[in-house]
Amino acid sequence: MPDLSSALNLAASEVTLAVGAMVLLLLGAFMGEKSTRLISILSVALLVGASALAINAPLGQAFNGAFVADPLAVYGKVAIYLLSAVAVVLGDGWMARTRIARFEYPVLIVLASVGMAMMVSSGDLISLYVGIELHSLALYVLAAFHRDDLRASEAGLKYFVLGALSSGLLLYGASLIYGFSGSMRFEDIALSARSVADGGSAGLIFGLVFLICGLAFKVSAAPFHMWTPDVYEGAPTPVVALFATAPKMAAMVLVARVLSEGFGAIHDQWAQVLVLICLASFVVGAIGGLAQRDLQRLLAYSSIANIGYALLGIVAGTEAGLQAMLMFMTLYVIDQIGFFAVLLSLSRGGKPIRRIADLAGLKKTRPLTTVVLTILSLSVLGMPPFSGFWGKYYVFGAAADAGYWMVAAAGLVASVVAAFYYLRIIKLMWFDPPLDELATTDAQPIEARTLALASAAFAFPVVIIGLTWLEPLTVIAASGFGAG
Predict the structure, then answer these.
(1) Rg (CA), the chain
(2) What is the pLDDT of residue 444?
(3) Per residue in 98-144, pLDDT tens?
(4) Which residues contact 126 (CB under 8 A, 6 or more apart)?
(5) Is it the case that residue 442 has pLDDT exceeding 70?
(6) Mean pLDDT value of segment 423-427
């Protein structure tokens, strides 16, 4: 076991963020709400600095294997920190526009980032649970951050209650796994899983099913998605932008690590559970989105379907499958950032747009924004040669190569069905007459437009150039993983 100094070097980014969050909290307590902009700037700098620390930190294990620093963890942490920094930027403009200046917002995001970083570096069930709860507690508060809004309060309460239920499932599954394996460490659990594969006790599988159910809640996969539409609709838009990106990336990496490292020997058993979750997510995400009129609820159902696609890479149980999942999630969160940046940059009558019908005739008042939103819509629905197509190409290909071609075909059908609601958005913007004048917000034109344009540029066909550096990164991150 490495000494404390070596362990702290491995967890340098997490320690830096935790200490930094405490310092920022004290700064806000002394300076009051007038320090909100300063704390937001410092939080972004802290998250970007943590990304650099994660890249340069040594690889290895710490705290008796409870903390793992490997290429997969580094990839996940850099993505999480940068996505969290974007959420701080979007939230700063939102607070300025709504005149809700609270310094706790960026601090909560930094604390959530610490929990998400612990999730992707978890080496045992205890660190897994601590990471999940640390980031979840911060997200519960963020969901209800606009406390004067009844919908936000309802979103926070629903998220908290259902989150407690999922934590119970996860803890029960972890207790069963510990009882039948005698260890919390994934490496030791893997030995017990091999005995199950050889005809040993099946109690470990029951624990694994409960564990998967708890984790499925965190990624909002069906049928554990019940919180997602209401929280997406009620929470502030920049908070939803965070929910749709960083926590999902962290949870997907965690699912891949748990199943690959701890239960690779019984891949056939847990793959059956994930296949059912994938199919349910396809149906709920594709069909449920058709009836939506609220933009953020629509994006919630879209996220459910897309999580099903991402899980296909894990179902494959191969190194190529994990690489495909990382590629898909990276491209998907970039598109999501662009979507929410567009929503934050538009208003009607001084209020943010929420209904899909509010986009009618957008090309006449905001032609560049219309082009950006069209590119992002085509990308998410998987239209070639946009980035979303390449993400689905990788996960469907990995699943088919592993023998799950029927599940991949079902995902392809669901993708075609879900294309309807994105094509409806495009039709409204380009061909329907405008309801009235649609204006850009005065408080956040630069940040939101810049992020939207950057996301659209990455979703454009030139993403092929981007794949030349993204693909090697995902190969390195996925190295050494797969069903054992």
Answers:
(1) 21
(2) 44
(3) 777 788 899 999 999 999 999 999 999 999 999 999 999 999 999 88
(4) 66, 184
(5) no
(6) 91
Residues 6+ apart with CB under 8 A from 101: 33, 34, 36, 37, 95
Residue 327 to residue 321: CA distance in whole angstroms: 10
Predicted pLDDT of residue 396: 94
For residues 359 and 427, is the Cβ–Cβ distance under 8 A? no
Report the sign of the C-alpha dihedral through residues 197, 201, 207, 209, in that order: positive
Cα–Cα distance, 386 to 173 (Å, whole number): 40
Token pair listed for 142: 């963020």
- State which amino acid sits at residue 63: F
Give CA–CA dist 84/301, Å, rounded: 22
Query: Which amino acid does the sequence have at 142?
Result: L
Distances (CA, A) of 295 to 44, 61, 218, 289: 28, 43, 22, 10
pLDDT of residue 75: 93
- Burial level of 75, CB count in 10 A (0-12/13-18/19+)? buried
Helix (H) or strand (E) holding 67: strand 67-69
**CA-to-CA distance for 175 and 181, rounded, in angstroms?**
10
Query: Rounded CA gap, 379 and 390, in Å?
Result: 9
pLDDT of 175 above 90: yes
CA-angle at 251, arms to 46 and 457, nearest 5°: 65
Q: 364 to each of 205, 237, 438, how far by Cα in Å?
A: 57, 25, 9
Question: Going by C-beta distance under 8 Å and a sequence separation of 6 or more, which residues neighbour residue 53?
Answer: 12, 13, 16
Could you tell me if 366 and 360 are in contact, meaning their C-beta atoms sit under 8 angstroms apart? no
Rounded to whole angstroms, the Cα distance separating 143 from 20 reads 23
Structural tokens at position 326: 């990382």
326 strand-pairing partners:
none
* Site of tokens 């920049």: 238
Residues in the chain: 484
Which amino acid type is present at position 309? Y
Query: Given CA atoms 37, 11, 484, 266 in this order, what sign does their dihedral have?
Result: negative
Contact, 310 vs 325, CB < 8 A?
yes
**Closest to 326 in 3D by CA, of 75, 67, 120, 128:** 75
Task: Convert the pLDDT of each residue in 281-314 to its tens digit.
Answer: 999 999 998 888 888 899 999 999 999 999 999 9
CA dihedral 123, 127, 132, 138 (to 10 degrees): -130
